[in-house]
Amino acid sequence: MPNTTLQSRQEQTSIYLEIEQSVKETAQEVSGILFISCAGGPSYLETQVRGILESQPGLTYKIWNGEEPGSLFILLPGQTLDAVHFQGLLLKQRLQEIIADFDPRMTLASFPEQGELTQQVLIQMEDSVKQHASGEIHIFTREEVRASRSRILIVEGDATVREFLEIRLQMQGYETAVADNGLSALDLMESWKPDLVLTELNLYGIDGLPYIHHIQQLDVAQVPKIVVLTEQRVEQTISMCFQNGVDDYITKPFSPVELDARIRRCIH
Predict the structure, then answer these.
(1) How many CB atoms lie within 10 A of CB 8?
(2) Which one is predicted more confidently, 11 or 264?
(3) Tens of pLDDT along 83-118?
(4) pLDDT tens-digit profile of 219-262?
């Protein structure tokens, strides 16, 4: 049977890519992105949103469905951050007039005013509405945009696991690089400068706590976050890893959804 969760994420990733390409291809100097989420929202939400946007002369837009039902991405070419904020306020007011008990959550941004739009930024915009449940419109900040463009180095000796992790993290919008042993991983950390290292402890060349110690001593401006993903379950090893600066420790077999959440928490 197909993995429906993975298939859904793949479909959503193609939407993120389409939005990203649409922004890059627009002739406008700036483009606004508005994300609306309303759990259990009516099936006709998109129709109402289109009607409100079309009532404004000269306004151009494109709409895509978000990952969850009742959520929409709206691209507003040529709209600065202030203009997108106005559109968000207008949409919220009109929708609440039309739909009874409607309590949408919104986040918005304008690019390149607030940085470069990437698939990971779009993922984080979706996630941000879950963290701002008050109903107020959340303006996605420059700091949030910068934090979304994160690099992850995958260090794993098993080729099958390594490939799965690389595909999974790329689907989340992260930049990835891979290494199959501790020594080449340390070289990559100095040259590629990842934000986070997702690593096994059982590695060829150098492994275990000496390997973790070498990561902490790297000659880089900022030492990467370290998430251990390993078969080792000895409590003393886990304790020593945290004492030596590891940010999180996950044992195999692992839940991909939990892995996503714990990496996101470490990075952000």
Answers:
(1) 11
(2) 264
(3) 999 999 999 999 989 888 888 889 999 999 988 888
(4) 887 889 999 999 999 999 999 999 999 999 999 999 999 998 99
Handedness of CA 152, 158, 161, 167 (dihedral sign): positive
Please state the φ and ψ torsions of residue 177, each to the nearest 5 degrees: -140, 160
Question: pLDDT by residue (tens digit) across 133-177?
Answer: 667 899 988 877 876 678 999 999 999 999 999 998 887 778 899
Closest C-alpha among 119, 192, 118 to residue 153: 192
pTM: 0.62
Asked if 36 contacts 68 with a C-beta cutoff of 8 angstroms, the reply is no
Report how far residue 224's alpha carbon sits from residue 234's, in angstroms, rounded to the nearest whole number.
24
Alpha helices by DSSP H, listed for 66-203, are: 81-98, 119-131, 142-148, 159-171, 182-192
Q: Which one-letter amino acid corresponds to residue 215?
A: I
Q: What is the 3-state secondary structure (H, E, C) of 35-98?
A: EEECCCCCCCHHHHHHHHHHCCCCCCCEEEECCCCCEEEEEEECCCHHHHHHHHHHHHHHHHHH
Count of beta carbons in the 10 Å neighbourhood of residue 127? 15
**For residue 112, cis peptide bond before it (omega within 30 degrees of 0):** yes
State the residue for tokens 């995958």. Answer: 154
Percent of the chain with pLDDT over 90: 54
Burial pattern 227-245, b for ≥16 Cβ within 10 A else e, equals: bbbbeeeeeeebeebeeee
Question: 162 in helix, strand or coil?
Answer: helix
Which SS3 state, helix, strand or coil, does residue 27 take? coil
How many angstroms separate the CA atoms of 136 and 169, rounded? 30
The number of angstroms, rounded, from the C-alpha of 150 to the middle of its chain's C-alpha atoms is 9
